[in-house]
């Protein structure tokens, strides 16, 4: 993902003087904090914390494309690119307003855990549907792992299959019966 326009949630981040390192540009660790803020904004937007769950990052990465300097402000776009049983994969785009270009991209694997036991927990269907609906508003179609009978195309396919199966079940005994009559 390389465009902020693909992101349903955009977090506005002001670069602070203290975000810079000894080399005079934003320290690489700060990018992870910026992505964290965008992730929490996304999770709040879909009301993820209303299900007795908390999010834990199992993996994350950042690709630094250009250095960022104070003073600047960033747009940190975030979207879900894959839904899993107990979590999802997010993609980030960090856009510098001062440079008018993307300065970094990133990804994170988010796992949902029970807020009381801290055990990995399956995501509720309602939460998956909220993610899919939010992403669909930006043209991002996601497979949220619904059983085949939940999707309209699958319903059509199942109806055709069942109809064909019914026809075969009516024809086969007749053929089989004639075959047995000849023996």
TrEMBL record:
SUPFAM superfamilies: Thioesterase/thiol ester dehydrase-isomerase. GO terms for molecular function: fatty acyl-CoA hydrolase activity. Pfam families: 4HBT_2. Signal peptide: none annotated. InterPro entries: 4-hydroxybenzoyl-CoA_TE, HotDog_dom_sf. This is Acyl-CoA thioesterase. The lineage of its organism: Bacteria, Pseudomonadati, Pseudomonadota, Gammaproteobacteria, Moraxellales.
